[in-house]
């Protein structure tokens, strides 16, 4: 079938900010869809609230909207653009839910918008638990026994009938939000209430538990002719009970017989045929190995995290093909490298793929490191090897957790077998590392299987790794025998890990194996659905099959797995580098291991190596490809951490030098430079023990900002208010050495923080914008809301910031990007830090100011000069407010406070003609919709009371009622502001939580005071999250919220495209 001629313009809905359960795999799928549909000649209108994505670049779609992803925005966009069709199944759960709502409320019918890719009733059949069950019954496919509940009482009755343990699954959610395993009625009441609150339709499924069964997934594709193919068979190594986003898995299935695979395939085809999805669908099954019973758990009639993994694991770009099929093509019209056309596709490959999740529990004090049916991972890596051991070990060193192998993690090696077995009772992020040490201590495979439900084959493979490692350890202090070294490399042991366990330099291991001719060789993963494309992986188990050219080429090092502090923004920069190199006539070579990203798409760069970002792997590619140089400044901390070793090994680092990057990180050297340039910095000192720290504290005075050296995302940063807090910090600081001291700065209380991103060619510097943080100093820049252009910084200070930025860039000889952090206190501009690399605000500044910063920086690294690029300062007549998005919903036990350590997973952008409205839209996009009327709860700390007066007056002026806790109520009354007293939890009933539960409160303003209150009132903030009430924990954000509500009252404005905002720039 040729492409559809009844549609000309297609609306693609993105997935919004990166949250746990919905990450950058949707940027990857949305970007592919835009490419595919534009190639077919369709006009594309795209909407997404996430500015850090490639898909929201103005050049990717014909019209781009960065607007909140809600019903109202979409109605306005449909009215503005009049699309003929909407493609909902590439924007994750968000895209499906919105399309469903637009259909139910008659908007699609009113404006004649067709739904392509997946029918609206198919969304119901796939997502609504009841409808899905009916479909499965009709097909004769078993599901776990279950019933629907709309209240906690109904859930209790069903659970009593099914028997515990049971599983709660909310409808229309993703990442297992709100669900969980329940072992008794008490737990049921908590989790059922949470699930009902999380569900879009107040519906939960109460289901029999299949804990411990095998979890198996198929990724299938269907076209309009009802032709179906299976792209990938995925085996979850962790059994049922751990969310698929958290469990580690392999492709192909390594322990599942052909007969069972065929049965799963038949079921999958029956399901997608019944649900009538066009494009990709993910189907999840549970299999009981004892009885052979197979049940279907759920389907996702859309691209998902698993489909991104399946695409990268097989070379089959599911989102691209899904978009083509939605546009009317069928599989027999799309090329396939093996058999002509795609309807003949079968999964193929003489390699093994392992996906391993990355968690950041340490970012959330109080979070329990336990894995269950609610997803906790913040990112993932994928590795490819010729055998399972090679791929598995590669995945571990890709995680960037400072571990290059499975042994000697934390203190597990020193624990007794009994203790290790106890640690294995509940799944955790450390499970594989604990298993490894348990095997070393002699644990039986059968016992480990009983504890973990991980199949014997996988445990036996790990046991063989342990046995080989033990043989290697016996040679410590002597020369490692050649035979053992060869075997270790074939089994995936990293040079760095061998060096660590043997106590020798990594270089020594590298030289020895190279002398033996043991070097990385490469093989290809061919891409289906397009002509002549492939990407590459290394192995020590096969000959080299990959050729190279002698053309001009440059390597770009990617950012590795998503994590808190380093997300999609860095991938955005890497992708732009590849595009810029292509336009300069230079071949780009991308190195990355994150399957969710656009940078690991087959056609982003000229050549993609799907490899860990370690010295061993990067050097091998460098030696093979012999590029002009390597770009390290775009991938966040990942490439910077290895840049020094690469340079030492002879790698040519392009742009800003490694020494400059080090100088900016070395507080002492950087301070001396600032003194020479006569640029003020907050007073500071460095300490390696408590006596030194106390001496500095005495000199500087409290409060202080303390942190370790060399970090990204504010790891381990804290504001310290007194001696006791300082002693506790120094005592808990890990890895402090004379060359890695604790840094202590005078904390500028109530300072306005701001930052500037700059582009420099080593001589000249261009600063497109200064961003003002809405939260005051003390909140990490990645977590603070910020606004372009600034709203309260006088012009003279902005001139000073631009002048300081240019001076510092010239002194550091920055070539490429630089991010500067400043604080303004007592009318003085202080430099806080310089980061001579890409920062997470680059995509934000690029979109608000219409300047492609990463692209220009790449051109400068290739030798161009700023003066030739004709960049002009343009006033920004609109406002762009970035707001951070947090994962606290997934960590209900954690106090959602903001501080100097970064905790956000993603961000949104609100664009409008006034600051107030831009802030309101940013909050709306971050799912913290500010109320237009109602009751505000105010409970503020002693030191914030005076500032809170003005805010209380504003809210009263807007007609809000105020409820306040004792101290705040008294203070407001004394100052003539009317409020109603409310009790704290320990003061009696009815108290704050009662009022929250009874929906008597519409907005919470709660600023914690120092130490006492930090623990004392966390229940207020936790309740706000649980009952979905917008809450604010800083005075500055409260003032912005009042402005936002006032602006919203005057009118919400209409959704406007990014291109139209850019047209206003003068």
Short description, anyone?
This protein is an alpha/beta fold.
Report on the structure:
With 1066 residues, the protein is α/β, with parallel strands linked by helices. It is built from 38 helices and 40 strands. The strands form 9 sheets. It has a 7-stranded antiparallel β-sheet with strand order 14-13-10-11-12-17-18, with helices on both faces. A 7-stranded antiparallel β-sheet has the order 33-32-29-30-31-34-35. Strands 3-2-1-4-5 form a 5-stranded parallel β-sheet, with helices on both faces. It is globular. The model has no long low-confidence stretch (mean pLDDT 92).
Structural class: alpha/beta
Strand order of the largest sheet: 14-13-10-11-12-17-18
Helix segment count? 38
Overall strand count = 40
User: Largest sheet at a glance?
Assistant: 7 strands, antiparallel
How much β-strand is present in the residues?
A: 15-25%
Q: Over the alpha carbons, how many angstroms does the gyration radius reach?
A: 28 Å
| Separation of the first and last Cα atoms | 47 Å
List the helices and strands and how they pair.
Blueprint: E1 9-13, H1 25-39, E2 43-47, E3 63-65, H2 71-81, E4 85-87, H3 92-104, H4 107-110, E5 114-115, H5 120-127, H6 129-139, E6 146-149, H7 152-162, E7 166-170, E8 180-182, H8 185-198, E9 204-208, E10 214-222, E11 228-236, E12 249-251, H9 258-275, E13 279-287, E14 294-300, H10 305-314, H11 318-326, E15 335-336, E16 340-341, E17 352-358, E18 379-385, H12 388-398, H13 417-423, H14 431-440, H15 445-452, H16 456-473, H17 482-490, H18 495-502, H19 506-515, E19 521-526, E20 534-539, E21 553-557, H20 568-583, E22 587-592, E23 607-610, H21 615-625, E24 629-631, H22 637-648, H23 658-665, H24 667-677, E25 684-687, H25 690-700, E26 704-708, E27 718-720, H26 723-732, E28 742-746, E29 752-761, E30 765-773, E31 786-788, H27 795-812, E32 815-825, E33 828-835, H28 842-849, H29 853-861, H30 866-869, E34 879-885, E35 906-912, H31 915-925, E36 935-939, H32 945-957, E37 961-964, H33 966-974, E38 980-981, H34 992-997, E39 1003-1006, H35 1010-1016, H36 1018-1026, E40 1031-1032, H37 1035-1049, H38 1058-1063
Parallel strand pairs: 1-2, 1-4, 2-3, 4-5, 21-22, 21-24, 22-23, 36-37, 36-39, 37-38, 39-40
Antiparallel strand pairs: 6-9, 7-8, 7-9, 10-11, 10-13, 11-12, 12-17, 13-14, 15-16, 17-18, 19-20, 25-28, 26-27, 26-28, 29-30, 29-32, 30-31, 31-34, 32-33, 34-35
